[in-house]
Amino acid sequence: MNPHSPSRFRIPAWAFFTLFAASAAVAQTAFSVGTGGTYPSIQAAVNACPASGCVIVLNDSVYHLDREVWIEGKNNLSIRPSSLLAMAGIRSRLWNDGTDTALKGTAADPEDTLGIRPAGWKKWPNTCTSEPGGSSDTVNPLSTQGYASNGLVVVTGSSNVRLEGLVLDGIRPQYFVNKGVWSCKYDVLFGNVGINLLRSKNVVVRDCEIRNFFAALFIDDMNSTGIVATGTQQLPAQEAKGHGAMGEHVVEHNIIHDNWWAIYDQGEWDLGSTFRFNRCIANRNTSFAESNAISSEANNMAGGFLYVKDVPRAIHRIHNNTIWASPLVIGHGAFKPGVQHLFYNNIVGGFTLLDAKLRSMVNDWRQLMSQYSVWMENNLFEVGAADSIYQIQKFSSGQVFDSAACAASGMTGMSSCWIGFDEPTPVLTGMRKSWLWNGWKTRSGGTYAATIQGKTYLLPSAMMIEQFPGGGFIDSVMGLASTGKYIDISSAQNVWVKSLPWKSTTLGAANYFEPNWDDSLVLRAVKSRGRKASGWSDALDLGAVVSNTLDSNLQGPRSQLEPSRGAGNCWRIPLRIGSKVAVMHITSVRAWSTPFATDETSTAKPPTEFFAQIPANTSIADPSTLDICLEATPAASADIRFQIESEGALQGGSTVGFESAYFLVPAQSDPSGIGVRGTARTPGSLRLSRVGNQLVAGGLPAGAFHLVLRSLDGRVLRDASLVSERGTVSFALPGFGRKPVLVQIRQGDHAWQGMTTLF
Fold first, then answer.
1. Among 319, 531, 662, 723, which residue's CB has the most CB atoms within a 10 Å radius?
2. pLDDT, tens digit, for every residue of 398-441?
3. Residues 629 and 646 occupy one common structural domain
């Protein structure tokens, strides 16, 4: 049985994944929580989870939490309902009273033994001062980022965590505003979070219902050593990691509704993630008019599917989602956003369900979809059924290519003629206000039905925009073009429709936001209209609920491993394959050069496509190294992006396509001075020594510095502002014994950190 195909009755898809996970995790330690369980709370089971990993089974349908579930430093940990609940189609509901932002510590350490998480730290920064919790405080590493630790479930510094078959309920979206905390003039507006993926790797969130939060999911992979990093960040020492240590999450088959944001993505500096088969419904800020008046940052918070902040380079796969009644599909607030994500096979619409204030935000400059062009394919955009949305012309006559009709009207011997209609015929010839977004144009030209002397004829019109009843194609967009020229995307097969029919829009129904497969418009615009992706043998349906048989566990080549420079204009792409198949081979290779945007408020620059030569041998082994050569050398100040399409033959003989694998080569010379790699961000390596009673730090550029000396338990031993001379700073250390200490030095956006045992 295909768990994603329509049927009169079906066990929820997440139950299949849960039962599969149970059998696959036999070797793991299994804990149970709730009635008859081995642990009194989810947190107690998390704390007890060994280094080898564990499965935490929830026996009850509801868990009222005293505070968040805190998962830190764990690997291979899963939380899921029991098999009995899964077979009954019941998700375990987690909720709390939303008061944990006022508490100190974490659920794993409520007493805050390090002394750096006092009460209220989850709303830091709340001032622009240098006091704890101020954005100018360089002593407490959480002063500038405490708010980023909010979440009903927080996964931090962990890997291979799976959250499946849960209901996370925030009761209502809550937000707070700290005004003028950045540079004493920019605000922080944040709130309650469902699942927080904080500087972790390969977290799977599958088949959950997440509702009533400021952000259903919050993702922060601010790894300053990732190859797509755009700055430095003061982090606790244990969080400094190399490239590939964070990101690569999978968020799939979830129902995410009635939050401000489905996904809030901040500081994405490492591997991109995959968001697929999610029904994201009515994620919007119903308090927009109120919050908009409170804070300048609130002007950006209309709500929607994805909010990006400081994500100019990392690449996400966004496909087969149903995004409905959300004003901002991909929203931003003009701080290092980007439109580089793969966006395909999605259904987007329901804008007419928004109130007037939110409806006006659909076309606002904060809507990044208006700048999409290159990486947008096979999506459906619903416009609305109301005639007021369209430009409609009434034709009273037209050219008929029928000699009999011409003769009947007194024009004998003519194969075509102009004839008056029995009554004026309305024809859609355009959309008002440059729909969907400014700079998007629909395809023109088609046929319409007109009645002449009681007989219906199909007549051509170069003006009409319906290529099929109730819809058409998007032909060109302005995208990132800065010259006022339109970009032809007609081959990308993006369609628009007036109104899409669903089987049900009732939350909890088995066919919730599943297209009505019997409808002619669905058969024309949704069924098999997508591009191939991981595990599909045919073109995939659009949207989150599909009728195709699929295996979403099949994976093609992994994305964003580090390419290396080969000879000439060639690059070596390291390939790793997640699934074993009989034969796998490359079907296409594309490459682009994208100038790196150094302006904090700018979006990505228009890419230039380069001809990429496909290797003679397209077969892929595991592992493989693929040599790709370009026709010319991209500018040294531009990122180079490769995209590889592949397919494989399964053991049974069928051939399936795989998701696009993408690879990024960061700019070789960076005019911003940030550097090619996070490890090259600092002008030199920090050198620590002791001369008499002086601590000496060398390898620094000239200028003013802020230096903090800490004990390993986090206590501040010394805090000083200094000026370097010939790359060296020093200060006296009277009274310090011989013990290990942590040295942190900051100059503007650059930071150095080192440990010494000289004292």
1. 319
2. 999 999 999 988 898 899 999 999 999 999 999 987 677 888 99
3. yes
State the pLDDT at residue 738: 53
Give the per-residue pLDDT at 25: 40
CA distances in angstroms from 387 to 390, 393, 428, 429, listed in the order given: 6, 11, 9, 12
The answer to whether the CB of 218 falls within 8 A of the CB of 193 is yes
Q: Which amino acid is at 244?
A: G
Q: Give domain status of residue 127, yes or no.
A: no
**Least confident among 260-264, 283-287, 636-640:** 636-640
Could you give phi then psi for residue 173, rounded to 5 degrees? -65, 130
* Bridge partners (DSSP) listed for residue 471: 468, 497
Residues 6+ apart with CB under 8 A from 356: none
Round to whole Å and give the CA distance between 733 and 736: 6
Q: Which residue has the higher pLDDT, 556 or 300?
A: 300
- CA 479/CA 355 separation, integer angstroms: 27
Alpha carbon separation from 366 to 303, 603, 648 (Å, rounded): 11, 11, 40
Domain shared by 585 and 730, yes or no: no
Same domain? For 410 and 348 the reply is: no
Domain count, the chain: 4
CB 544 within 8 A of CB 279: yes
More reliable by pLDDT, 283 or 745: 283
182 located within any domain? no
Domain that holds residue 749: 682-756
Whether residue 580 sits in one domain with residue 489: no
Question: How distant, in Å, are the alpha carbons of 238, 567, 679, 749 from that of 742?
Answer: 12, 43, 19, 19
Last residue of a domain, one of 382, 400, 435: 382
Sign of the Cα pseudo-torsion (118, 40, 68, 55, in order): positive
| Residue 521 is assigned to a structural domain of this protein | no
Is 710 in contact with 756 (CB distance < 8 Å)? no
* Residue bearing the bigger pLDDT, 216 or 13: 216
Question: Same domain for 429 and 467?
Answer: yes
Q: Three-state DSSP class for 525?
A: helix
Buried b / exposed e over 320-347, threshold 16 CB at 10 Å, is bbbbbbbbbbbbbbebbbbbbbbbbbbb
Q: How far apart are CA 589 and CA 616, in angstroms?
A: 12
Residue 461: beta bridge partners? 446
Q: Is the pLDDT of residue 733 over 50?
A: yes
Residue 192's pLDDT is what? 98
